[in-house]
Each structure stands twice: as C-alpha cells, then as structure tokens.
Amino acid sequence: MKIILAKSAGFCWGVSRAVDKARGLADAGDGPIYTDGPLIHNEQLMARLRSEGILETDNPGDASKGTLLIRAHGISPERRLALTRHAACLVDATCPDVAKIQGKIRKHARTGYDIIIYGDEGHAEVIGLLGYAEGKGHVVNGRDDVEQLPQLDKVCLVSQSTQFPAAYSGIAELVKMRFPGAVVLDTICIATKRRQAELLEIAGQADVIVVVGGAHSANTVRLVELAKTKKPTIHIQTADDIDAGMLKDFRVAGLSAGASTPAFIIDEVMARLEKI
Ligand code: SF4
Domain 2-10+190-275 class? Predict the structure, then answer.
C-alpha cells in the first residue's frame, strides 16, 4: 500500500513544548513531577511519562512536595491561584497560542465586552478561556446556542484554538447578524489550520484516509470529521487497531494524526501500513 504522510501529522509545537518541559523537570530530578490533568490525550505516551516519574493529578495538594505543571490547554486565573497555593513549585506549559487568546479575552472583557467563545463546552482549554472573561463569557457550539444568547451590547467573538476555520466563519456570520458591530478575532492556531489544510490536500491524492489519535482528543476527532467529508476514513489509536481487511479495497492511504499523537506511534502505523 502506498502511504502519503501529512508533514503536520503528530505533535504541534505547543504539545511538544509541554512534553519537553515535563521531561526536562523529571530529568533534573527535582522531586515528583505532577501535571494538572492529563498532559496529553494519548494513553500510550501517558504510560511512558508515568514510567519516567511524570504523574497526572486532579488534586494540586499532591504537589505540595513537588512540581506541578500547567498543561498546554492553559487554565483559568482562579485555578492558577489555587494551584499556586498548593504546589511547592508551579511551572507553566500553557501553549503561547492559547495564552494569546487568554490575553485578548481579558483585554476585551475589561473594556466592557461580553465574550462569546466558539468551542466545546467542558473542554479544558475552553474552561480556562472562560476564566479570562471575568464573568462575561458565553460558550457557543452552533446556531441554536447563538440564538439563545441574551441581548448583549458589546460583543467579542473568539474561537477555541482547534476548531474548524469554516465552521467558525459560519458562527461569526450568525454572531454578526445577531450583534451588529461584534468584534470577531481569528484565534484558531496556525498549527490547526495547517493540519486541516494538509489533510484536505492529501485527501485529493488518496483512496482512504487514516487518522491516528486518541479517542478523547478533540482535534483528532475533528480531523476525522473533516476527512470523512472527502474520503472513506479510518480512525485508529495505535498500529494494533489496523486490520488489513478494512484496507483491502484501497491502494493509496493518506495518513495524518492529531496534535497529541507521538511520533513513535505514527512510525509504528507507517510500518504496519507499508506491510499491507
Ligand atoms: S493545537 Fe495550537 S494552540 Fe493548541 S497546543 Fe497546539 S499549537 Fe498550541
């Protein structure tokens, strides 16, 4: 089987930076290293990190004698304050692209804007972003949510960093109709735009698309949705999920992976596909 591998497959720079920071701390031997929630949505890498002494926790008190790392998704100011009180040492691995969105939200909230966030309610990044809206944040995920918003005077719209640009444009049009004069900020990160654009490019040359990534990885799930609009698509988490039977009708596979898929898993998938 011929494989076309997307150059953007796998870790984005924000995730790569967070993982490197955690490993750097563990290598320095500065006591136990905890991450505030799962560092990345990938079970296989999480298991490796655990074996390297990097442990996930929901209880900041665990880090009263160690280092606590804020992951790439970022957190709200309230959560940051709580972590500062509990952890002996707090290290921030918020992706700079997420930090920029947080800053824009805070700036607009402080000048009288209500903030509408286009994103997945309950996603860690969105929870963190909401905290910067200083009580004036609203999360929307579709047309109905926009219609159900209360009447607002000054509105600023931002997006979670990993949403579809086309879907965000649609939401922006609805918001501008509902709230004329709304400020719309382009906050989908470059890594996400590049990954989605490249997926569409390889879809034009492949018979089937294989997307590798965790079942709980929001950006992976969106990649799968996007791929399905173009070609038959298979979502796998590891090479072990590949069944030669499901690929027997195809000659060329396009391969991409979510932002939290480590390179070793992509390599294993490539090797398995090449044998088919
Ligand atoms: S997807 Fe974009 S915003 Fe999110 S961690 Fe990666 S580079 Fe940063």
Answer: alpha beta
Q: What angle do CA 97, 166, 187 make, to 5 degrees?
A: 20
- CATH code of domain 97-184: 3.40.1010.20
Q: Are 121 and 141 in contact (CB under 8 A)?
A: yes
Q: Does domain 13-94 match CATH 3.40.50.11270?
A: yes
pTM for this structure? 0.93
> Where, residue-wise, is CATH 3.40.1010.20 in the chain?
2-10+190-275, 97-184
Q: What proportions of the chain, in percent to the nearest 5, are helix, strand and coil?
A: 45, 20, 35
Low-confidence ranges of the chain (pLDDT < 70): none
Question: CA-to-CA distance for 36 and 34, rounded, in angstroms?
Answer: 7
Mutate to test the pocket of ligand 1, among 21, 161, 196, 222 (most ligand atoms within 8 A of CB): 161
Q: Residue 155: what pLDDT?
A: 98
Helix axes 13-28, 43-51, angle to 10 degrees: 20
Q: What values do phi and psi take at 100, rounded to 5? A: -65, -40
Tokens (6 digits) for 140? 């929307």
CA of 228 to the centre of ligand 1 (A): 23
Q: Residues lining ligand 1, CB < 6 A?
A: 12-15, 72, 95, 97-98, 161-162, 189, 191-192, 259
Strands (DSSP E) along the chain, which ranges? Answer: 2-5, 33-36, 54-57, 67-70, 89-92, 114-118, 137-140, 155-159, 183-184, 208-212, 233-236, 252-257
Q: Name the token pair of 89.
A: 């040492």
End-to-end CA distance of the chain: 6
| pLDDT tens sequence across 133-167 | 999 999 999 999 999 999 999 999 999 999 999 99
